[in-house]
Design brief:
It contains five helices and eight strands, in the order ββααβββαβαββα. It has helices at residues 24-32, 50-61, 110-125, 140-149, 181-193; strands spanning 9-10, 14-18, 67-72, 78-88, 93-101, 130-136, 152-162, 168-177. It has a five-stranded antiparallel sheet, with helices on both faces. The protein has a three-stranded antiparallel sheet with strand order 6-8-7.
Amino acid sequence: MSWLEPVELKGAVVTLAPLGMDHVTPLKAAVQDGEFWKLWFAKVPSPEQMESYVTHAVEDAAKGNIAFAVRLNKTGRIVGTTRFYNVDEINKRPMLGYTWYAKSVCKTGVNSESKLLLLQYIFEKKEAVAVEFRTHYFNHVSRTSIERLGAKQDGILRSHQRMSDGSIRDTVVYSILQHEWPAVKNNLLSRLANNCHAAPE
């Protein structure tokens, strides 16, 4: 049995449901709202890539890398996706990423509550030692969002990955450690209570 298994996480605004093939069509609609796949530094699937994107995520879940569809509680609309990946079960250290949302829900609290649900689950239920975040050096919106969570920068992996356009990505690595979670949680709860919304990732 894997350390992480598919689980539904429900908050006041959103529910994170284990990603399945039935989410392909609503995710195609979501990604067309903002067309973030056109950003050269982002790893967001186009509508044409969505079926393959979800298929790979579902297959990866068997290895304990759990992906979620983000659903609005009020309307039932699927507005994006996020996941735990490269899960290090022995050291209880997952990465959290592959996060994107429809443009219409950016800065509405969706990202803040999604991160709260995910981090609360991984630290409080699964007793993670640390959670890691990685993003493109030039993805300043993502970097700001991660830093606003309270994650600390661990370093930069230079010439780390080749992008689809042939450019070479420098990857910025952040983490939240177990003992930092209570303060990060208070920060997220305060932001949600005061309607201070996170930027999209």
